[in-house]
Request: fold
Amino acid sequence: MKAFLKIQAGRWRRNRSAFTLVEIMISAGVYLVIFVGVMVAIQVFALRVYTLAATKLTATQSSRKALNQIRDDIRQGKLIQVGKSDNSGSFTAVAGTNGAVGNAIQIFGTTNLGAPYSIYYLQTNTVGSVSSNNLMATIVTSISSSTYKLSTYITNLDIFAAEDCYGNTISNVMKNNQVFTVKLQFYQWEYPISYISTNGGANAYDYYQLRTKVCRRALD
Reply:
């Protein structure tokens, strides 16, 4: 039995390089500066995108409300005609087999050609030396009628159209095969949120288009 174990001398460990405390602190500081800079840049970009989106939504607010109202009326309507209207709201439907495209639409609540009904039309006359180009709504009941403005700065005349399921324009005669297209193109020059252009004057967006297609819910 050996009283003492013979401990063999091993090889010396190789020298290994490492960061000093000062180098670690400098590296962490550089990384932190880069990280904070990237985060700030992302936040600024997100705020700019939010401003752009909020500006567009605010500018199109009245037109979106108009589309919602027209959509609900078309879905509930029993008899719908596309045609033309003058500035007073007098409606004339597109007759015969002509393509039903125009600046006005008449929606009846029943199958009878009488009240109640609604007329949505484009008013293009000049009121008080100001060109209107307003989308107007006339609501007629058995006891009263009222006309009010839905949207402004409309530039297109072909606001309403009757189409089939393939997108082809059809006539008012095709009662049970109509999909009604509502297209609003308008020029908006003033935005209430902020200026986002570099020249401090005009905004980045001044032209908008809203489109939707609606079909009556209860077909005859």
In short: The chain is about 25% helix and 30% strand. Helices lie at 21-59, 61-76. The first helix runs from residue 21 to 59.
